[in-house]
Design brief:
Elements (H helix, E strand, L loop, with lengths): L3 H13 L2 E2 H10 L5 H4 L12 H4 L1 H17 L6 E6 L5 H10 L5 H4 E6 L3 H11 L6 E4 L10 E6 L8 E6 L2 E9 L5 E9 L13 E4 L1 H17 L1 E10 L9 E4 L2 E3 L9 E3 L2 E2 H10 L3 E2 L3 E2 H7 L2 H11 L4 H12 L7 H4 E7 L15
Parallel strand pairs: 2-3, 2-5, 3-4, 5-10, 10-14
Antiparallel strand pairs: 1-7, 6-7, 6-9, 7-8, 10-17, 11-12, 11-13, 15-17, 16-17
Bound molecules: S-adenosyl-L-homocysteine.
S-adenosyl-L-homocysteine (SAH) binds next to helix 4.
């Protein structure tokens, strides 16, 4: 099935030649007219995918408590910013702010900054957060964030950033490019030029290597920010703790995986996050990364069980649904289950000390 964006992409490639997967993903997700995130709310059971904050309010509440604890460890700064990258419908932020009311001083000092490119989702965030009656500043990128201490949250943000892919051939690595076949249908091909910067990378022929340059740049900049002005960041996403080979580029439409070359602009496109690389980028920017843990460990350490029990006691008629949703977040019965597939990484200013939920406090 063709889409208006596929037509544009075919015309672009016919004119300019094959394009990188990075450019293909960027246009598919963020083309101002037809980009996936520019035109719709992708979330929820009737959307294309569902995320942890949309599954249970407990997710945002526990991350809120984490922010509160970090605020205390930062010495309760009088002025700082609470930042979220890619806030979706604003659900995580709303749930977090609700629990942060109980942390003395937090809301007095916090400025709320949301980094969001989608006009549709910005509107939803505005609606979700309006009842809190607090000023909110939106940013198209992290570059315009004010120079202040920061507590930063990012759930399922890095997976949405475009990546490049390379394939190992007998003579070396070649970038995978999106081109056209004789019928003017989008197909994957390989660049004729070998990728010189990967010459030393060893792998079997046919292996695919992914490079998330945009994610690395954003992580390095955030790390520099924390290093300069203080603070912490927590990121949760699906992906792997150790770098490796493999093709993780995927497209989702109505909760089903489809070929990413089909329906550009109308299906979500993502890749799995390489947490080892993210952690290295944070270090390169001068921040200190935590260990990488599973979402299950993160949420259990933040007190998922007592919070779930408190909620079910307060809402006995919804007890089954509440329990089911919470258990889904920490499910580790298969590698694809959320508690195991999703990982968490925190980074901080070098003087911050042990990061709550990640690192054992030094005695
Ligand atoms: N964090 C939310 C939404 C995840 S979907 C949740 O957990 O429910 C990815 C989010 O990142 C969306 O809000 C999308 O619009 C936003 N996004 C994607 N690319 C972005 C970019 N380059 N800069 C800022 N936001 C981006």
């Amino acid at each position: 099935m063709t889409t208006p964006l596929v037509k544009d992409l075919v015309a672009l490639i016919a004119q300019e030649g094959p394009i990188s997967i990075e450019r293909y993903m960027a246009l598919s997700l963020s083309d101002p007219r037809y980009g996936y995130y520019m035109t719709r709310d992708p979330l929820g059971t009737r959307g294309d995918f569902i995320t942890s904050p949309e599954i249970s309010q407990v997710f945002g509440e526990l991350l809120g408590l984490w922010c509160g604890e970090c605020f205390r460890l930062m010495g309760a700064p009088e002025s700082f910013m609470l930042v979220e990258l890619g806030p979706g419908r604003g659900t995580l932020m709303a749930d977090a702010l609700r629990v942060l009311k109980i942390v003395p001083g937090f809301l007095d000092g916090a400025e709320i900054h949301l980094v969001e490119t989608s006009p549709v989702l910005r509107k939803m965030q505005e609606t979700t957060l309006a009842p809190l009656g607090r000023p909110i500043t939106w940013h198209a990128s992290i570059d315009t964030l004010p120079t202040k201490p920061a507590i930063v949250l990012a759930n399922e943000f890095f997976d949405a950033l475009p990546i490049r892919q390379y394939q190992k051939e007998a003579q070396g690595w070649h970038e995978r490019l999106v081109g056209l076949d004789d019928d003017h249908t989008l197909i994957l091909g390989l660049s004729a030029e070998p990728a010189a910067h990967l010459a030393a990378l060893k792998a079997d022929e046919g292996s695919v290597y992914e490079e998330a340059r945009i994610a690395a740049t954003i992580m390095r900049s955030l790390a520099r920010h924390l290093r300069s002005y203080g603070g912490v960041m927590l990121t949760v996403d699906y992906g792997h703790s150790q770098s490796g080979m493999g093709d993780t580029w995927q497209a989702l439409s109505q909760h089903q995986f489809i070929d990413p070359l089909l329906r550009a602009g109308e299906a979500d496109q993502t890749s799995h996050v390489d947490f080892q690389k993210l952690s290295e980028s944070a270090q390169a920017g001068g921040a200190v990364p935590s260990s990488i843990i599973t979402q299950r460990d993160l949420l259990l350490r933040l007190g998922l069980e007592p919070r779930m029990q408190q909620l079910t006691r307060g809402n006995p008629d919804r007890s089954y649904d509440i329990t089911k949703a919470c258990l889904r977040l920490i499910d580790h019965t298969s590698p694809q289950a959320m508690g195991q597939l999703f990982k968490a990484l925190a980074i901080s200013h070098p003087n911050f000390g042990p990061i709550p939920a990640f690192d054992a406090p030094s005695s």
